[in-house]
Amino acid sequence: MKTKPKTIFILTILTLLVLLLLSIYLMSLGENNKENQTYVYVSKVVDGDTFEMSDNVTIRLLCVDAPEKGKKGYEESKEFLASVILDKEVRLEKDISDKDAYGRLLRYVYANISGVELFVNEQIVQEGYAKVFRYGNDTNKCDEIEGLQYG
Which residue of 82, 106, 123, 137 shows the fewest CB atoms closer than 10 Å? Predict the structure, then answer.
């Protein structure tokens, strides 16, 4: 059976159209993820899991619990966080909730260190300055932070 040139042309056009629509869809998924990301300048570190942006808005690291003031390890965790993010621009990524009961933004934090993006929430736990803390429904990256990646 011989295929007609007109049929081949129509199939080619339909294939290209499907590929174009698939590309547009995949790009829109990336754009939706960008909506959950923001770049901010860190002006103050409050403790090992909390800091302030230059506009005085407070950020709480998701999936992380560092020692509170007066507790063992408080100064060390605060100093570690400051060494990584203070006076730098960081990328914030939202999970499900926007804020906690205290009005702090709940975010995953990424810092650019010598051209390498560092996942701050994970690093502070891996270095031993904080523990994993699953906060409500905002737990999408807690396993990653805890070092329990599967697959």
Answer: 137
Question: Domain residue spans in the chain?
Answer: 1-35, 37-146
Name which of 78, 148, 81, 84 is nearest 111 in CA terms. Answer: 84
Extract the runs of DSSP E, i.e. beta strands, from 48-104: 50-53, 58-61, 64-65, 89-93
Backbone region of residue 11 per phi and psi (left: phi > 0; alpha: psi in -120 to 50; beta: other values): alpha
- pTM for the model stands at 0.74
Residue holding tokens 């990336």?
30
pLDDT at 66 over 60: yes
pLDDT at 41: 95
Chain centroid offset of residue 87 CA: 19
What sections of 1-151 are H helices per DSSP? 5-34, 74-85, 120-126, 142-146
CATH number of 37-146: 2.40.50.90
The two tokens of residue 64 are 């992380």
